[in-house]
Write a structure and sequence with these properties.
The chain is mainly alpha-helical and 354 residues long. It contains eleven helices and ten strands. β7 and β8 form a beta hairpin. This is Cyclin-like domain-containing protein.
Length: 354
Amino acid sequence: MASQAPGHPERRDIKLSERLEAFLRQIVESLAWTSNSPLWEELQTNEGRLPPCQQVMPSTLLEEPQQNYVYPEVNMVLVDHSYSIQRNPSSSLQLFTCKVYTLMGEHLRELCRALQLSDELRGKIWTCFEHSLVHCTDLMVDRHLHQLLLCSIYIIAKVSSVEILFKNITSCYSSCLAADMNVWKNVLISRGDGENQSHGNHSLTPTTPSSHHPGKELRGNLIGFYNQVYLARMSPFAMQFKPIAGMETPVSSPYPRQRKKASHRQRLSSKYSIYISPYNRATPSPGSPIFSYTTNSSSRERLKELNNLLRRYTQPREEDEDEPLVRRPRWGGRSLHQQQLRDVENDRLAAAQK
């Protein structure tokens, strides 16, 4: 592990935590699904399938848990909410699967918010996504969880008559999750083993062609994967969500509750108790009005006000003739406030250079 500046333990801990979290996400999203991953041996203990969300997550971590829900089967068999603990998967598989559903639930929530999709449609997308993991688990071999998640958004939007383009989905995906474009531009389509099958239902198919790299593996963009692989496997299940007069659509699977993210404070200097914390709208303001500036939101005029406010502490102030002079503590020719701000600035510059 690379060591950080010893004078900034809080900053070091935050950066280390962020790096570990990013590495964990990479494992859950893609590394664990490579063809040589031990995950596939672990799945053999569960009939080669990933357990459904309700089987690995307690009801307290699910939104509005119901007594019965639609188990992700094509024949839509209702399954009782109480599931025998003896039939649960191994503890390691259960922990991994719980992380998968928790993380993907957060990502889908962000994407649906950016795409302005309703909670009802989000529930249908989630049910479709869960079905692909539970009953088409082999679709994940050498692929990325987000590839199936984005395809689920598109196919459910199509059958629900919600107009949305694949490029809009990938654009929101890129901006919301700061994603690597290879996730949708370099997707495994076939290994030359006949994985991709022809299909006759073109009503849900995008029209953008897919390119591929030469060799045994056929790779292309996400639309190519959707057309040639995903659609044939998932269309029968997704079509059950198509609104038909006189018929009810399936009940959505339980959805993971939104986690409350920890509010990490970052100390700016080892000498002074000055912190930066994430803004929380729910936190009540102090009794007296305070100045606030929100990054990427507040206006330029607000930024100018902030700069002018800071200059009051960083530049000598000309005393008003009518005001009594106030003797301030001095430090090497500077006021105490000026020295404190200069120390904070020096600390941050030193930390950035290490």
